[in-house]
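ok here's MoxR-like ATPase, seq below lol
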Amino acid sequence: MTATNVLRPSAETQYAEELAALAANDDKQRPPQWKLSPQAVVRYILGGTLPDGTVISPKYVGERRLVEVAVGTLVTDRALLLVGVPGTAKSWLSEHLSAAISGDSTLIVQGTAGTSEEAVRYGWNYARLISEGPSEAALVPSPVMRAMQTGAVARVEELTRMPAEVQDSLITILSEKALPVPELNMQVQAIAGFTVIATANDRDRGVNQMSSALARRFNTVVLPPPATEDAEVEIVSQRAAQLGRALELPAEPPSLDEVRRVVRIFRELRGGTTSDGRTQLKKPSGSLSTAEAISVVTSGMALAAHFGDGSLGADELAAGLLGAVIKDRVSDTAAWQEYLEAVVKERKEWRDLYRACRELDPA
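and the structure came out like this:
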């Protein structure tokens, strides 16, 4: 399988040229096992132009100091916890930090209610275990164990969705930098460069609070939502255009005006007030995150490409907006109807969007 037919290449594959250029221009000291110096990692995340003219695209739009603190944490022996509401690019930042530091962002444990302790520690090849008994050959290392053995970054996504007892299996790993294997009377020692980047949010249902013992072993960086409408428009435009190219959508890149409409709707409904502060609004039950805004624009581009004239407009946005806003049929429908009548209808430049949304009226 080649990189050209992979639906979603890993960050180190997709941005291989940028990473190679950064490494070639990087004359700063690199910590053990790191592919780039901390300064080069920050440049990879935030973007810039190298001395040889290579343009590094920004991967994260936000405060530089937050990225510097995150990278500075990973230089030490502390693990990093990225916290924020849904859609604040926690997983995106985690992936790119891993790609820049280790050249491998695929050592992932995905946290869910069903994640077992084996996913964090190790498992067994049961056929060999039954036939041969416990042995290193029968051991199946977890992504965390492989990261310990190679001095790489392990990613733990949605840490607080895992059961508390599974979360706490990280305590020994993070404090002792070792993973005991009592069945073999041995332990795996982490080599220099090993660290963990975890992500968590406390907005969704199904969250299991971290124990204080585990929380103490992380340095926490809180990723805020985009501070301004312009910043969020930039993020949504950039990611939607990237996704459109990756999916080979035969549609024009979304215009800033259409992206701004989606972003403004999301920000006003999230905040419970219009951008001018004059009208109070009911808040829907969903998070209406930046990631969901990207999804609305991308799905609109797909509709425009295959069922429209190739240009994203109100008709293509309406269905996506409806699906993003209305999660609870009763309360969210009432909030959306109020917003349509009190805000969208009153904005003359949004009359086309009002008409398109009314045609899809779920009431």
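fwiw The radius of gyration is 23 Å. kinda neat tbh
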